[in-house]
Amino acid sequence: MKEFELINTYFTEQLVNRRDVVVGIGDDCAVITPAEKQNIAITTDTLIAGVHFPKNTPAKAIGHKAVAVNLSDLAAMGAEPTWISIAISLPEIDEDWISNFCEGMFALCEFYNVQLIGGDTTQGPLSITITAQGVVPVNKQICRSGAKAGDWIYVTGELGDAALALKHYYGDITLRGDSLAYAMNRLNEPKPRVLAGQAVREYASAAIDISDGLLADLSHICKASNVGANIVLEDLPLSDTMLTCLGAEKAMELALSGGDDYELLLAVSEDNKVGMETTLADMGTKVTCIGQLNGNHKITTTLNNKPTQLNVKGFEHFANE
Amino acid sequence: MKEFELINTYFTEQLVNRRDVVVGIGDDCAVITPAEKQNIAITTDTLIAGVHFPKNTPAKAIGHKAVAVNLSDLAAMGAEPTWISIAISLPEIDEDWISNFCEGMFALCEFYNVQLIGGDTTQGPLSITITAQGVVPVNKQICRSGAKAGDWIYVTGELGDAALALKHYYGDITLRGDSLAYAMNRLNEPKPRVLAGQAVREYASAAIDISDGLLADLSHICKASNVGANIVLEDLPLSDTMLTCLGAEKAMELALSGGDDYELLLAVSEDNKVGMETTLADMGTKVTCIGQLNGNHKITTTLNNKPTQLNVKGFEHFANE
Fold first, then answer.
1. Which domain holds residue A40?
2. How distant is the Cα of A193 from the closest Cα of chain B, in angstroms?
3. Which residues pair with A209 in a beta bridge?
4. Which residues of A touch B120 (CB under 8 A)?
5. Is the pLDDT of residue A286 over 50?
6. Which of A19, B51, B159, B210 is least surrounded by Cβ atoms within 10 Å, i.e. has the fewest?
7. CATH number for the domain including A241?
8. Mind listing the pLDDT tens digit for each residue in B202-223?
9. What is the C-alpha separation between B221 and A114, in angstroms, rounded?
10. What are the φ/ψ torsions at residue B89 (nearest 5 degrees)?
């Protein structure tokens, strides 16, 4: 176990040194000072090798992704990320691996001024659990339950690229050159919408990050807010890579079902549309209106104004519940 | 994965409903409101089957222990526990197992008014990571680094019983009847010193919980505080079960080296001795002075005033660093 304790020394080699951290790594607990008039948002996500990322994923990408998926949850709540704790299980001591993992983890932490305040290293199959915390002004969190019939449905960025990379990994399709590099980057190094999440706090009535796939995550909002939704298929934001590699119909299917996008799915009232669009445009964040919530308790899709059901697993998920 | 999501419903069946929890389980993040003039203490501990507990440990005991080891870290910091998040990896869906696990987890949470605010369930080898949080008045946390030469060394309760149970489990000794029941209870259902930790905040100059063994954890305090220590072997608090089963010398060896006690190890100045002893006596918490810190940079042991080195692995640990 002593060797594993030594690994913990890697976790102390970070540049972030927040003023609100009273006690950092190395004692029984970390101690932080909460800011006045701010609540604290807390999320925990586990990544297991072979389940949440391909086993041959580079260590640096795993370090990035373990932080990114948690910051994405904070973004979906409208919170500003501040501190993370990590519990990591490693099959063996591989100092190169842990060094690269930390490089990926700390690069993202430094970008957003997030401090690692605790770590626990154990021996076992590769698995990483990060608990991330952030601050959000009192009563300003964006919940899944705040959406109303009539709200417009928006997504940031483009959908399905990570799932495209997984299709390549599993041999369903073959990507090459720039297309491969683009899709693998979207899978391995997702960019959590940290600043966009905070920026839409004043405008969005509900938000979730797209980790399980657009339809699955939209169904979470619909269920929590007791509404239904229609998605306008021709409005789904698709990358050129997706369209070139799959064609329009298969690209739309993957955009509906593929996970790991870590884009934000937002519900925005008619009154808040312009404010939200302008705010995100000013930040250079692409956002697209892809449909509208309604009073039915199911999720439908239309193409050129006609009801159209694509071949998508999980599509009936919410409707049947 | 859907079945695994259903498991999460067990995590919502808790009785604790804290007023400072704004958003509990079920959204992208939990949201809590910090109290004024309180800092927040945070700790993360992982328990892996076969490493941190025997594989045949009852589910209820695992649920209890996963919370207990984390509350013990909060106690060692002088913090009052408030919220926990759990990431659990399960090899299969076994509703009886998860129900018993939750029973053990929630019983301890309810006792200390601790609310579960987040959960993530994945499929894999049995492993539990809990992040526990607590509150501590500003600048009142007890760190490992605050001890001074001359401070007295105290421990709560009795030492080595959990290690005695492990000796039985691994076949080194055979326990029977009440002795077996007593030792197994100490191993499987450790009682974190939650109230004692808060009560000694005004008196202790340093604290740690004994999870790795007395000498190993004392060495952490010595290293962080830049002091040495002498332990008076005849003063080690040993249970009747330990003395009967092992005899005095082997019992002392196990008290020095055995882990999983989850008692508190405290450094207390001469001026604070009476106050600390009285406070803990009023609470009915046994506490024993077992030695003194000094200016040497090693840990020594004496028996009847004579330097005496017992056969204890890890004893040279701090001295050689």
1. 2-137
2. 14
3. A264
4. 44-46, 129
5. yes
6. A19
7. 3.90.650.10
8. 999 999 999 999 999 999 999 9
9. 28
10. -110, 125
